[in-house]
Hints:
Oligomer: heterodimer
Largest interface: A-B, 22 and 29 residues
Strand content of chain B: 5-15%
Number of helices of chain B: 6
Structural class of chain A: alpha+beta
Strand order of the largest sheet of chain B: 2-1-5-3-4
Number of strands of chain B: 5
Radius of gyration of chain A: 19 Å
CATH architecture of the largest domain in chain B: Roll
Strand content of chain A: 15-25%
CATH topology of the largest domain in chain A: Uridine Diphospho-n-acetylenolpyruvylglucosamine Reductase, domain 3
Order of helices and strands of chain A: EHEHEEEHHHHHHEEHEEEEEEEHHH
Helix content of chain A: 25-40%
Number of domains of chain B: 2
CATH superfamily of the largest domain in chain B: Beta-grasp domain
Distance between the termini of chain B: 63 Å
CATH architecture of the largest domain in chain A: 2-Layer Sandwich
Number of domains of chain A: 3
Amino acid sequence: MLRPFRLEEPESVKDVSELLGRFGESAKVYAGGTELLLAMKEGLVHYERLINVKNVKGLDEVTSDNGMIRIGALCTHHQLETSPVLQQRLAALVQLEQNVANVRVRQVGTLGGNLCFAEPHADPGILLLALGAKMVAEKSSSKREIPAAEFFVDAYETALEADEVLTEILVPAPAAKSGVAYLKFGYLERPSVGVAVALQVNGGGKSVHDIKIAVGCAGPAPRRVPEAEEQIKGRSVDEAKVNILKAGEIAGRAAQAISDLHGSQEYKEHIVGVLLKRALQNALTQC
Amino acid sequence: MSKAMLRRADAQTIPISFTLNGRHQEFAVEPHELLLDVVRERLGLTGVKRSCDVEVCGACTLLVDGRPVSACTTLAFEVRGRSVMTIEGLADNGKLHPLQEAFIEHGGFQCGFCTPGMILAAKALLDENPNPTEDQLKHFMHGNICRCTGYKKIIESIMAAAKLMRERRA
């Protein structure tokens, strides 16, 4: 049961930002509504106004130029799982999107909404962290890029200011000789643990030139794990395959796992290690 | 008494026009009205079911422009200018759709509560992919839950319908 609210339907980012500024915490941006409406129906939150942003033009496209993939914040999961640009340049994101929730949620849920709602058990933020993505935040008079690592502050909390609107997600296209993998595990509707790896091998394919590791779902917000990356970065592929066990232990602890319906803290930490090992192997096979 | 009346008096209404099972509809809704309630209560089409109410079970599946959505978590105004199909609109002048025939023929339902959603989701799948593998079918239908059949008969029904539809098209 939804309590009544008023609806605003602005047609520009500027107007969205001004409405957010004017109505403050009594208003909320509404796009697909797949997470927001659930929380409102449950009575966990109530807003006097929803600001429907779907009439703002130009925020539902995926383009690629100069090695940068630009994803409009209003792209639905379904658009992303079927995007020719992503299929060609970022297959790991396509695969992730194919497995978000279910076909009905993917049909209306947007990537921007997913990121802004910052529900801890969400997939995309984890992979975007490992890919070094940036979030474009706009308001009436300014525009800035927020690195993914700074975007996710806590459960349900992002670095967006009250009148800022997420408009685009910028993802550097993976370079040659690189591999990207996202793996998750869960037996409920939402994932219990998610792990992402983005790596690059050197010319001869003998060593891991660079690697980014991100974990999420187990704790309050997705996070990079530089301490685990250090175990792999610059090592030979053979060494990396051994060190990944140690990296898994480090990443498991860094996940800030909590014991809940999805499993105990210890169990989730273990699963992080298992997924990280598989993700490394998967990413290496792509190089 | 006055509180409810006051709210109604200053309520925002949004005019919507859309097609429902091929028929033009035009009326006004309040922003918070859910598609599920409008279809069941106002339009009287009760094939669509409320069950989990959190977009997990698929009993409230409707097709909007041919794609499945959870009516329990869709605001009614969102169907402005769109085409909505419920299970009541699937048969063609009383002639059952191949999916309906196949569900009967292959025992694809028991209590029937999930069936409207199952059949509409399956229609969306077969319209997009007329010849799915069993794995593709399971992936697409993963968000539609049945507590009676154990799914085997449902999968058989959809595969049989797919074959029937391909044959009739050929």
